[in-house]
């Protein structure tokens, strides 16, 4: 058995696939590392009306379940935040490629120097999916440390449109780097 | 993945064929009682998150598919083996979550397990709902997990065994009290965790473990008091997945298949033992039989740890040492990221509990579900021996989801209380307006302890910054800048300590009291400690406390040196990190109280 593991380890040396930073996601703007509860992003404003203008906190393509992509966009308008998530594969929680849009929150964790981005999405029932005829609640949660651009977390689906409980399937893993 | 020395089940099978080389029978007369014991350690999170994007397997197996293969290929055949021999007994250890998997998708196997357990043939051992790294986290995380396990066993009608063995053979002396509180009776302490600390041992049949008893797992014993002779051997003490599959594990899905021939080999070995007068029994029956008839031996002091400390560098494999995969390439694991985020999720949970209570919110269902997710987040295999990226991200995804749910509760509480910013104190159970950092500190030029920070990669910038909370409480932040992506990953820090025979820390599952070891009691040169509260003595009256939200790496202590060291081989070469430690001068009791305030019951500003 030790020999088997050694062989596998050697094989892996040649095909290591630690993800490269996703660069095709466009530019990141807004301040992702400052601020307090609610939105940490400074937002612009229309100087003529004082109406806050949307600010993109980040818009990035990340790994979904290691082998697929998911595009995640977080935007602020004043103190409000929203998120758009487009998973290449939906794993029965949503149809592949669905655009999910929902209210987001940008939470600061000052004691660890980190920010967590969360959002909720109301998903329709997916025939053949783990929730059957029931609507699906999808929750995004991504952690970003001030020290780095690595952003990691998941997209978790709950049956009956809930946002807590026992997930319909394991949280879908999201990992990558902000530009 | 749980194995460190993957050949031991083959050894067990070999022993079976050789009638389990039993301890010498030194006694001249009488017929000894002979017990053949076993511990099948099953882990349905063996590859947490399934085989997805796994470099060693071109296909894709979703989490449920890997779980199902573990049940079908390895658990069910073992159960069927014992069902065919009603006079035999065995111990099967599993996490509570495995019962939920059985109930959801393998009802026949659940029925068989239940029937064997009710018949007393199988003692179903479980101490945690998830195969989590509980020696490295606060007591309450395990308490919630264990309570869920008890409830899960009750819900599925499976009697919970009274013996205890754990994922990765995690063991600690404070488990005695926690076990006694919950009607467990017998600890199975892995032999190598004993031997690593004290050298070779001639096993006694039964030891005292607080008010309970302890069996040295995997090591045969021989006993003769002149009137009573007992011989004990172990026919299996390993990952249960390996018996029926000829030593293949779930990382090799094409080979991880039930092989009836190897099960038949094992069966033949047991039959031979039975014919030679050995009782094929459970640990519980064994301990019950001996408890009042032998003199319980006293174990030496034992540090917390896992079952193969020799090959895993103690707990460092989970807390800083890189995994065995992709040798020569960048590490797949991210130990400090995974383990510190698991701790942050804990902090948020206890704060959310307090916030909900203060605000009068009915968040019980959400929080209970989040505690379950936290147990899954803290799974050992998100770091450790050979996590691939999928397992690492399993831990991160679960931890961030816990953070979201807990923070949702806190935000709801703020709204209910009309607070814009709140200080939540889980120790006091309060939530009040404010944004004051409970550990606000002023920069100082130097600290009370010499700190040596190093990086193998010379291009990494290293900065050490001291600050002071008060005259007895200093904080040091050690920053490692990003380095050359092609360079070595190792970064380390060492705190100069004053050698003192007393080594003061806390034990896993006993967060409220210091425990003092005598270094002279041990045989090791160096030993790695998880430090569930982050605290360890750095000399008489001086303590070092990891800030677990930022650094959760193994603390290396030494028998003959007072220094404490930490290292991380898993920090990506092109990533930066900041480790924060506290140095406190004062009593052990005050140090533990401070460690709790810093780590397990942190006041948070939200």
Summarize the structure in words:
The complex is a heterodimer of chains A (179) and B (606). Chain A contains one helix and eight strands; from the N terminus they run H-E-E-E-E-E-E-E-E. Chain A has 179 residues and is mainly β. With 606 residues, chain B is α+β, with helices and mostly antiparallel strands. Chain B has 14 helices and 26 strands. In chain B, strands 1, 2, 3, 8, 9 and 10 form a six-stranded mixed sheet that branches. The radius of gyration of chain B is 24 Å and the shape is globular. At the A-B interface, helix 1, strand 4, strand 5, strand 6 and strand 7 of A face helix 11, helix 12, helix 13 and strand 26 of B.
Give me the CATH architecture of the largest domain in chain B, please: Alpha-Beta Barrel
From the alpha carbons, calculate the radius of gyration of chain B and give it in angstroms: 24 Å
Outline of chain B: globular
Query: How many β-strand stretches of chain A?
Result: 8
Q: Rg of chain A, please?
A: 18 Å
List low-pLDDT spans of chain B. 2-28
Total domain units of chain B: 3
Please estimate the helix content of chain B: 25-40%
**Helical residues, percent of chain A:** under 10%
Average of per-residue pLDDT values of chain A:
81
Keywords for this entry:
heterodimer; A: 179 residues; mainly beta; 8 strands; 7% helix; 41% strand; disordered N terminus; B: 606 residues; alpha+beta; 7-stranded beta/alpha barrel; Substrate Binding Domain Of Dnak, Chain:A, Domain 2; Beta-galactosidase, Chain A, domain 5; 3 domains; 6-stranded mixed beta sheet; 6-stranded antiparallel beta sheet; globular
